[in-house]
Give the backbone structure.
Amino acid sequence: AGRLTIPAVLAHELGHMQFAGTAVPAGAWNDEFRASYWAATQAPNLTRTERATLLLDAIARARESGILIQPSQLMQEILYGYAVER
C-alpha cells in the first residue's frame, strides 16, 4: 500500500474507535484490516485516492497474515472505479 495521508491516518484511527471493546485484540491483523476498511468505506471527506490507499492497506494487512481477501463490489468500485461482473 502507498503512504497514508494525515486525513487517511485519522480516519483509520477513527475506524479503530468504531470497534473499541470488541473481542479482537488491538493490533491483530483483522483489527487493522477492519479499521482501514471502515475508514475507506465510511469516513467522510476522503478523496478516492485516500479511500483506495486505505483499502490497499487493509488487503496488505490480511495478506501479511496469510489471508486472501476477495474484493467486494464496493472495494472494486473504490479501487478500480467500477465493479467487475462475476
The helical segments are 6-18, 29-42, 48-64, 73-80. The radius of gyration is 12 Å.
